[in-house]
């Protein structure tokens, strides 16, 4: 048996723990280093990749329906096995309970769970409704539904969900069998040719899901991966289908792939599907079907009829997962982070440099640099002393800025043989019995940044109370303004409870070189760097070769320990927790569920094992942290950022894209990733701008800083081993950033209004073109996007170019688009990739005809921007009309008592503003700009009062009307009373 396999078996209590001696000299004194091999598990045969694996569809009998009972709301029935158990990847459950619930006119739920709890499924886990609520019924009935559920027993139980209005089959398990075992569930639905599916995250991939993919869901500490499972779990998809309409007969047929350009009349229908299941999952996208597999739980499917994307998304959020948190106004400003800010003075210098170059800055972030030996809730007093920090933060707050520190998910456990190695946070956790255990009741001890660690048990209410207390105690020393939760999958650098009997070695070094340590300098640069920086690129390549050679010499040619291959087997009636018989395609080594994560057999206070609840850990720490922040700031919206998320995490937190690279490819993937999180009800999304790992250069960072200026969450962050990449590091990036930031800060009122609409209605903030313009030719467009309904961004996503191609949706139907910078209408043809000039430092932005944007003046902070006069930018459509809206409140109250809603409307020769609400907005209106005014205005009045001709400008070539000098006419506030501007 290989040594690594022995270590793994020891970690799960099957062998005594054995470790090889290892140390590193990176610390002041020699320090034990966790062996790298301990990160890896056994290699298992991943069944999805193994052609010899049993096909459950071929060997399992399925079920037969009996005891059907109908009601006004649906039906219940019993499903009994239609033959001998197959026990393909677990023990078959012989009797199941089917419930079909027509919950609302546009929502249908189908639930299948074990009918009885017996010896074969005594440990069955269904998602706790207190953790993830089920979709709720609201006056639904069979007769009033948009959807129809039908079933058949031929040859075994299968069902279909049909759109009643059109007869289209939205979900069909016909000609397949339901496989329902204690560690394996499988069902399959047919799909039309060339289907358009979106969602099924969290992963980095193209927006429109491709065929022949294996989409794995198991929360993993894995950055920089494509098409693999990542940090979170969002088992929801949007399905959009396009139909060609015959003008004469009205007949319709589904649009086939590639023929969208030839179709003039079409209709689009979208529906959504959500599987409420927290177990490890796998979705296989075949050319004509979708296979869904889980390692346990239930079939709890909710169907949303739409028929538009907007209706599906709103329904999913309002009825099922909850509406997204309303963000503080300040959170929409610019955020700066870096793993590598060594002390308070360095952070102060960063703030001062932003001010020096007059670059907006709202939030400063601290990565794990500030921690005492990477321990949560303790500062390194040599570099981040509390008194100095309080002085820095007081000045930061006085300037209108904010501070957010990182908090990791694992907690250090002290060395019992070292009396000075105290950690009160751990002691209080033990006293509260707040940590996850081994099956034998001992503490489960993994390893993360500080060394051997323990993990809060969120299934215990004591853990949440303990966590909140630690947040409060630490804030008394470090007055932070928000919290950044990391490593929450939950991650561990070893397989199993590797710290058992090893605590005398704590603190230990992670099983790899930390970024920036000798031998771990990052020499990666973006595509195209060697072309524009030839000499520097050669020197970097030479340095990288020297680092690789030194590492090879130090290793002395030794190879990692060999790893045994494990073929999991089925023992009827017994769940194989650590090595389930079906192996999902987990991104970690060997597809092992325990690799870089808390092991599946770790046990919670309520008896649940990590196997069943792993994907919920990140969701639950966000809830606990959110509740703690509410206790610290009663009535104030928490600002919370989380890495691992689940369906519904948007109620509490924002999300960033995790570890990415300083590559143009990574920059591209942020767009589909952001659009996916719009579907998942987490609109406050943004990437590590300019890239987390690798080194940014002038070109990439210029392009990326401009792109991210139009993302909801705007933050620059990178790793210690790479060069600094604050926007002021390059003169060209300063100018590019300030240019894009000026637009962002001007439209903050629009962005804030979008967030309010998302928070109250479930609408999206960042949008795919196909959502606003359901056109089959736009179904896969993810290289440009909309910010709300009014702004379109067409970024450059490749190096060494000075132009970009973009489409202008709707122009064939009379849609008008205006260039943001020239304010002139764009001359574009339907369905044509238009070449747009985009020299370095310029990001193409376009405003949609028919829209009105409320704006304020840009400033270095949102606080300062909110004190400036107002402006309106109106873009008339082909009929000379436009509309818009504005929402205002105090910017931070959880439930503001004073709010203001302003409606704007333009019609050919006038623009009106009408406000309702009690929020007093004292800033005046400075000017109004109207694009698309076709003739010279003869007279301009504001509430029937003439506007001085010197304040009126008209550009006949651009057809733009500018009306200034309105401050005196609105001295009591831009929206204090209704007004009309005529021209």
List the helices and strands and how they pair.
Elements: H1 3-11, E1 23-24, E2 31-32, E3 43-44, H2 56-59, E4 63-71, E5 74-81, E6 95-104, E7 107-114, E8 147-152, E9 158-163, E10 169-172, E11 179-181, E12 184-190, E13 196-201, E14 213-217, E15 234-245, E16 252-254, E17 266-275, E18 281-285, E19 289-294, E20 299-304, H3 309-321, E21 334-336, H4 344-356, E22 363-366, E23 371-372, E24 375-379, H5 386-398, E25 402-408, E26 411-412, H6 424-431, E27 446-448, E28 451-454, H7 461-475, E29 483-486, H8 529-532, H9 534-555, E30 565-566, H10 610-613, H11 617-632, E31 640-642, E32 654-656, H12 664-679, E33 685-686, E34 688-689, H13 698-708, E35 714-716, H14 731-746, H15 748-761, E36 766-767, H16 769-772, E37 785-787, E38 791-793, E39 803-806, E40 817-819, E41 834-837, E42 845-848, E43 851-856, H17 862-865, E44 870-875, E45 881-888, E46 900-907, E47 910-917, E48 925-931, E49 941-942, E50 945-946, E51 952-955, E52 960-963, E53 979-982
Enzyme class: hydrolase
Catalytic activity: Hydrolysis of terminal, non-reducing (1->4)-linked alpha-D-glucose residues with release of alpha-D-glucose
Family: Belongs to the glycosyl hydrolase 31 family.
Could you tell me the number of beta strands?
53
Question: Any idea of the CATH topology of the domain at 56-241 and 268-321?
Answer: Immunoglobulin-like
Q: How does CATH name the architecture of the domain at 56-241 and 268-321?
A: Sandwich
Shape: globular
What class do helices, strands and sheet pairing give? alpha+beta
Strand content: 25-35%
CATH superfamily of the domain at 56-241 and 268-321: glycosyl hydrolase (family 31)
CATH class categorisation of the domain at 56-241 and 268-321: Mainly Beta
Largest sheet: 9 strands, antiparallel
Spans of at least 5 consecutive residues with low confidence: 1-21, 24-28
Mean pLDDT level: 94
